[in-house]
From TrEMBL:
It is an enzyme of class 1 (oxidoreductase). SUPFAM superfamilies: Clavaminate synthase-like. Keywords: Iron, Metal-binding, Oxidoreductase. One of its GO terms (molecular function) is desacetoxyvindoline 4-hydroxylase activity. The keyword Oxidoreductase applies. Its EC number is 1.14.11.20. This is Iron/ascorbate family oxidoreductase. Gene3D superfamilies: B-lactam Antibiotic, Isopenicillin N Synthase, Chain (2.60.120.330). Coiled coil: none annotated. PANTHER family: 1-AMINOCYCLOPROPANE-1-CARBOXYLATE OXIDASE HOMOLOG 1-LIKE, OXIDOREDUCTASE, 2OG-FE II OXYGENASE FAMILY PROTEIN. It holds the Pfam family 2OG-FeII_Oxy. Residues 110-211 form the Fe2OG dioxygenase domain. The keyword Iron applies.
Amino acid sequence: MSFTNEVLEYVRKFHELGSEVKKKYYSRDFKKKVVYISNFDLYKAPSVDWRDTLYLIMAPKPPQPEELPQVCKESIMEHSNQVKELGIKLFELISEGLGLNKNHLKEMDCAEGLYVIARHYPFCPQQNLTLGFSSHTDSGFLTLLLQDQIGGLQVLHNNHWVDVPLSPGALIVNLGDLMELITNAKFKSVYHRVLANNICPRISVAFFFRMHLQENSNSRLYGPIKKLLSEENPPIYREAIGEEIVACRYTKGLDGIPLLSHFKLNACPSNQIV
């Protein structure tokens, strides 16, 4: 079984477990290393999306093996390590693409945190009334996404929603808000969403390179990389602790306001997104 198929299959097995098994992972405490829930912003967003999610903090301090769901723990642990190595290679390429030393982003600890989100989008009898996942940008540096063959992922391009073509076995690479912040918008985060469907359940697994919410954490400060700034290219965003951006997403929810607007210099969050 291929890497992608194996991860998706074991995640599917978890979501097919009975409620009695899954409910022991249910929590709204997102500082826990293993959380099962529907909508993280259930009491904040103006609408509810059609999905269930298993959240896993896999780096820098992963859960103990016994904390992970038995049905998928070996697959998640093994493939998180493989994705971590791939992510480091991608950060090297991105660094070189920015004209920096290839280890620049790695030395900024961009690859230090890994947050895994394993989603199940159930069959939706009235798909015109909801979305699988509302329009948003990812909050981290980089996201590697696996999806099954059901489809539904769209990206916003020139103010139009465009279907992301299905490619069996492919990893979709997406840039997030922290990447836009540190590159001063040279690389931009991408708005995307997932449609609800009335065909059959959809499974996806997203590997987010970012730190998560940690108590008493001494996370480093991130701001536009100074080597990328000049008089013609002044900083757009203020410096922020990485977890501050993540916390803002959890506090605000998917409220229709671009996440990075809260971190712009001399600006206030006002522009709505689709």
